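Hi Y.,

Following your request, here is the sequence exactly as I used it, all 870 residues.
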Amino acid sequence: MPDRFLNRVQNIRKRVLWPLGLTLTFFLLLFLAVFQIYLQRELTRELDGHINSVWHLYEEILSERADDMTSFIGAIEGNEPLRQAMALQDREALLEHAGPIYRKLQKNQPFTHFYFHAPNGINLLRVHKPETHGDLIDRVTMKQARSALQVSSGAELGPLGTFTLRTVFPWFVNGKLIGFIELGEEVEPLIEMVARQSGSQMAILVSKNRLTRSGWQSGQEMLGRAADWELLPGHVVTAVTDSQFLQKLPRIVTPETVSGEKRVDINLFNQHFRGGFLPLIDVSGQEIGVMLVVRDIDATMQNHGVATALVTVFCILLGGALFLSAYSILGRTEHTLERARQTLIDEIEKTSQANTQLGLEIGERRAAEEALRKAHDELERRVVERTAQLDQQKKLLENLLTNIPSLVAWKNLDREYIGCNSRYAALAGSSEEEIAGKTDGDLAWRPSLRRHLAAIEEEVLAENRAVLGYEVVDESPDGNDYYICSAVPLRDEAGAVFGMVSIMQNITEQKERQRLLETTLVESRQASDRIAGVMRSVDDALFVVDADDNILLMNASAGALLRLNPNEVIGRPVAKAIWVESLREKVIEILRRREGGAVFDFEIGEDGKEAQVILQAHSSVLVDPQGRYEGMIFLARDVTRDRSMDRLKSDFISVAAHELRTPLATILGFSELLLDGNVESEEDRRDFVRTIHDKADALSRLLDDMLDISRIESGRGLELFIEKIPVESLFLPVLNQYRKRFPERRFDIDLDDPELLLLADPEKIAQVLENLLSNAVKYSPEKSRIAIVGKTTVDGYRLSVIDEGIGMTPEQASHAFEKFYRGDNADKAIKGTGLGLTIARHIVEQHDGTIRLESRPQKGTCVHVLLPVA
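Below is the corresponding structure, written out as tokens. Let me know if you'd prefer a different format.
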């Protein structure tokens, strides 16, 4: 039996550690596989976003180039010699005057096509190719311009396979259509511009069923390009950003990749590129081919590799720590079992020795009994029976004393030890054989324990009664041991006390468990209080979901934002507790995937109305100390204002870019015409110069607004030069200027006390008044009344600008002074950057004044400016 027990003890580590190691390895490989799948999905999502941004950039560039073409054609249509030649259908005169203009345009603009068409659509002159003319132009842009008699722009596929951006401009003279002007530009340079700005490689592929082989090959030969009709199975290459990229196309452009959602991978310039296809739509809305966009993903793949390596190292370290911990715990277990086995063997040997001694005594008795058998048969029988009884009792007593977990000893009335079990002897620093005849003073008791034992014995002998359940502390530098001590007097058959039995039970482990339990309860209460405090102090919405998808915790902020009572939803499933559909579906999806680190937006609003609040939520996985899944934490914060400001800034950038580009294009076009000397009329020349001056002045005002808002945002404020200035000198120059600029408007001016001196910076206050008058003109009907009223009040001088325009709703009026906000969102034709009122408010406030706005929809707007009096 001991050998089998020893073998089992020695095999514990092997039987536990091998399955544990295999399990840890399996979960490590499974986690790494799931992590790689997640990284690949993130790479695909990022690539889809990049392809969409490239498409939007492509559309923006086409739109900008179309606007440029419209501006240049607008400048060209004012050329009087060209008008006369077009009205007379004189090709030679048209070529004579348009040729220099086209060559001049080509120096600064990549225009490749310049046409003049008759009103019936027959081509009158190709300036870029004068020898070809007289054919009917039936392109979509031409048809749209003829039918609507408006400017038509868009990218079209030509019969020779060229993809060209075209703008057709109807030419009117004195209200009569005399023909059409058309400018065109090959799309290939624009594709290269998109590729440079987006950091991509691109190719334009046109479906062969949109072309004829002979026509396409002749078109490519005319443009000086290599024409390989068989390069791709279903498409021809119209534009490509790099020759190496062109060589890779036959491998990646297949019917499966073009028609599906499959991503393509290629190696270019010793780099790994990945991308996909977008449908190529012409101006008629038909799909004529595809656009291939690929980008370098080496850096992204490298980052993914680093992340995978870090996760792998972390998992290996964690698994190693768990394995070593198990190895250590099993080692201690084996050591404990080995000591128990050795103790058992020792007890068996002692029992065997006692049995041997008993056998010897029995043998001696039997020899004596044999000698006396004849005389003492009856006595011998009785002795044998009594001996058997004593042997059984002795074995029972020895077994009891050996296996009892308590410490047992017995003494005489002189307090000398008669005997004890092994545990008692070990605690007394002696052995069972040596302790007999000794007193407690002869043994190595610690003072505190010796004192407690003496007190118990004194009470037993003095009162002749048992003392039970006396708790004793054995104090030592290594830590205290605790015992439950009892003492019982020994009595003979007559009832006289002849000694006592001491019983000690070690309760140190029970005491330690009790102390740990009490400490754990205190820590649990403290942790609960801390969690409650954290939940109360977090301003953002916070709620916790357990492993069964039930609401575990929810703070007051979450209840307020989600319009829930935290006390009512705790313990309920997420699917029934959360009424906000967008949040509920996203939370259920994240709980199903147990996805930590997820970030998503959701909206809260009333049914049938625009969302009132936009929140951004973050998810975190909740695990216990053993790494088991316990649930998830969701934290949401209000990002309504952030999203609004992002949208307003984007709108401002778009508007500012357009506001800059449009006057610049006009300035360039008119200045080129003036430099060429083709403007013969002095009146036209003055009109051109006046237009250039007006556009330059508009650019200057726009740049001043941008610089002012930059100073305000940086906290430096605006530099003011305050002086004492009369009311009429401060306001009348700007008002008179607007009267001249807009003679069709009715300006009613009523300035109270015109000689009153105000404390103001004339230039900055003029900027404020110009902004208010500009808004009044832009947002009110022609020939409507604009009133400017000045009144002296107890607080200063109040100037009011009142119009009869479209007005604003209370919601729009509350945002009117915010940066980038434009109250005319319903009318995109009204230009503006949304900075004027913001700058005006800062200027007035730096004068220690106030500015406020009153407005009603379709009733007009009134802005009041209060300035200090000198």
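Residues 824-829 have pLDDT under 50 and may be disordered.

Thanks again,
Q.
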